[in-house]
Automatic annotation (TrEMBL):
Name of the protein: Homeobox domain-containing protein
CDD domains named in the record: homeodomain (cd00086)
All copies of domain Homeobox, residue ranges: 89-149
Superkingdom in the source lineage: Eukaryota
Biased composition (Low complexity): 60-70
One Gene Ontology cellular component annotation held by this UniProt entry: nucleus
Region (Disordered): 60-122
DNA bind region: 91-150
Transmembrane segments: none
Amino acid sequence: MGVDDSCNTGLVLSLGFSSTLQTPSKPYNKNPSFLKLEPNDEPSLTLALSGVAGGVKPASPLSGVSSFSSGNKPKRERELSSDEDEEGTVNGRKKLRLSKEQSSLLEESFKQHSTLNPKQKQALARQLNLKPRQVEVWFQNRRARTKQKQTEVDCEFLKKCYETLTDENRRLQKEVQELKALKLAAHPFHMQAATLTICPSCERTAAAGGVSDGDGNSKNLFSLASKTHHFYNNPLTNPSAAC
DNA sequence: GTACACAGTCCAGTTACGTCA
DNA sequence: GCTGACGTAACTGGACTGTGT
């Protein structure tokens, strides 16, 4: 799909929304998870150098080697408490199915806060007759699913944006063509110069083609065109951004 | 004040189990 | 009964933060 294609240009095109960036209120979160798009949010496209744009988590120079220097216990060993392998399974991985009551209570809790502090986790685990680790895992997976769903919704929204902008671009291109034709009809002698530009960023070059109007005033041949282009106040639809 | 170790937590990605068509 | 797809519990590894020494 064209929208998803990356060009290896080092540029990042992102769609942002002005009003409701929902971030969970907890100390550990540093990634912009749980970004929610609301129907009324104004989309804004930004173009930035990859890795320079805000919100991009910088890769640690030590990533990939940090485990060598870690003196920590292995995670598996650390996280398995003494009562945790009591099922007697080969690798301690016996999957259980949460009951409907457990699931609905977890859901209720998740609605109130998508992360848990240790006390909440303990309390919930006691209430559900689960291990705190299970509650923690459930919340992690639940957050991941929420994010995945949100990503899918965002993707659909971006597709629609793309289609809308494509249509808009087509319409504006057509309008430019019509205005050029109109201008040619009004100033047939300047046909050659008039074909030079359609873009405000080229205006300076075009101004060299200005002529005297007989009163000694230099007239910009492209004043009409540049006025037309100044309609593009919206950066989303400004064709000069593509230049 | 700084450096280090450690515990705790997060996320992204993966694995593996249970269920259902 | 077998099988593949799917949902999800559980795991792994890296990164980060807070705390104690």
